[in-house]
Automatic annotation (TrEMBL):
InterPro entries: Retrotrans_Pao. This is Uncharacterized protein.
Length: 479
């Protein structure tokens, strides 16, 4: 109900105080308001606008936290003059929590708060998630089973190391003082056999030189199903593509340029290729990347200068204050001094992810039949000649191993019947849609010949008279 009322207030003050209305709609999370301003005077104006707006709904701000000492002093004075004393300023060390992270408003840094090994969840870091996956992959332990000493020492080491997170601090403000112009968004991706992901930095120009700000990262453990390293590198590039898109959509400061970096030359080659020429696993992911970013946004970075390597392999807490926090050193050099290795085309025959093209060739030849029905004026003569031809074929074929099978030149009834069946089958084969065309006659196939059913099946007539061969009218062979 309170959230509904606050949104209602934001709608009512849209014309009178549009800035406060935007803050109430966009920067509110449950009963907290989190907002950044460019100057102390701007912050003080926002505070007054918000208090005035919320007073219309009888909402009172319980507590203000601010990184500016000037604003804290004004809030203290305002609190002493307030008759109800509901607005209080921050005292002590300036420690509070915002969105699950510790925030020291005096030093304006974010930090982790690790209270107890028994109550905290430690599968949030990539190293702990990798070890958890290893336990799952082994399929040797149940939830209540104690771990062997070797694995216990690994997990205890992770727990002890996580206690050190309390000493890691991140600047809350991503825009350095004196920054000139808009930043460049740089996203680095990398993968290993155990994990993959991406990390993003904003590169600012300041009077003292280029400065990097860590913005976000996304790490995932590699799937249990075995994948090649190039495929995992592609999955990491896809994560970097999605992460960069999310940052551009959610960040109030829009970067003037986005650069996505990978140390995998084959992945960069795929991104520059036609997705339809690649196998489904690779093609689908390349297609999504290409629908979001121009391939020109991607560039190669050496493995040794890729901060994504820290993410894919995992680093200790003590290493987080180096390259991971500040970005690679080459970003602080002029653009023409950045690593820029040309991506060469890979021959199709050497790329295992290229679809194999198959071609079907059909050659149609028209041959005159040995026995042409048009050369005969009556049916019996056609059948006799056909029977002699079939006898000859059978005699020279491997199936006829007995030379004395045919003791007489006189044709046997079975041979004449086979000749008739031969022409009936040829005639019926000229009707490919016989099932649909003659379904009223309940046709069926018996010994390669189409026979008809019908009500005669209930009579006492012989089988051959009940189920007659179907005769094709106006046929080349039987007309």
């Amino acid at each position: 109900m309170a959230s509904f009322v606050i949104l209602k207030i934001a709608k009512e003050i849209q014309d009178k105080s549009p800035e406060a209305a935007v803050i109430l709609r966009r920067d509110r999370y449950m009963d907290d308001l989190i907002h950044s301003c460019s100057s102390p005077q701007d912050a003080w104006n926002r505070i007054q606008q918000l208090e005035t707006a919320l007073n219309t709904g009888s909402f009172k701000i319980k507590e203000w936290f601010c990184s500016s000492k000037e604003i804290r002093d004004k809030l203290s004075s305002s609190n002493r003059e307030s008759p109800d004393g509901v607005t209080v300023s921050l005292d002590g060390e300036g420690e509070t929590k915002t969105l699950g992270l510790g925030w020291n408003s005096h030093t304006d840094v974010l930090k982790f708060s690790v209270k107890s090994l028994e109550t905290e969840r430690y599968t949030k870091t990539i190293r702990a998630r990798i070890e958890m996956q290893n336990l799952w992959r082994s399929k040797q332990y149940d939830w209540d089973d104690p771990l062997p000493d070797e694995l216990s020492s690994v997990w205890n080491g992770l727990f002890r190391e996580l206690q050190e997170l309390q000493n890691v601090e991140f600047p809350r403000c991503i825009k350095p003082e004196g920054a000139v112009g808009l930043p460049v968004l740089n996203v680095f991706s990398d993968a290993s056999s155990v994990a993959y992901g991406a990390v993003a930095y904003l590169l600012w120009n300041t009077p003292s030189g280029p400065t990097c700000s860590l913005i976000s990262s996304k790490a995932r453990v590699a799937p249990l199903r075995q994948n090649t390293i190039p495929r995992l590198e592609l999955m990491a590039a896809l994560v970097s593509s999605r992460l960069a898109k999310t940052i551009e959509e959610e960040l109030k400061i829009k970067p003037r340029e986005t650069i996505l970096c990978s140390n995998s030359k084959i992945v960069l080659h795929w991104i520059r290729s036609e997705s339809l020429t690649l196998k489904p696993f690779v093609g689908v992911r390349v297609s999504e990347i290409q629908s979001t970013w121009d391939p020109a946004n991607f560039r190669h970075v050496p493995s040794g200068e890729n901060p994504g390597d820290d993410l894919s392999r995992g680093i200790s807490v003590s290493q987080m204050t180096g390259r991971w926090m500040n970005g690679p050193e080459f970003l602080k050099r002029p653009r023409n001094e950045w690593p820029n290795e040309e991506i060469k085309e890979i021959p199709l025959s050497e790329d295992p992810e290229v679809r194999k093209k198959s071609f079907s060739l059909y050659a149609f030849t028209h041959t005159e039949p040995i026995v042409n029905p048009a050369d005969f004026s009556n049916w019996p003569k056609l059948i006799r000649i056909t029977a002699y031809c079939l006898r000859f074929v059978n005699r020279i074929s491997k199936r006829d191993t007995c030379a004395n099978t045919y003791e007489s030149i006189v044709l046997q009834p079975s041979e004449l019947e086979s000749a008739e069946r031969h022409w009936i089958i040829l005639a019926q084969n000229q009707v490919p849609d016989w099932k649909e065309r003659y379904r009223d006659l309940t046709p069926f196939i018996e010994d390669r010949i189409i026979c008809v059913g019908g009500r005669l099946g209930r009579s006492q007539l012989p089988y051959d008279q009940v189920h007659l061969y179907y005769s094709v009218q106006n046929n080349t062979y039987l007309s």
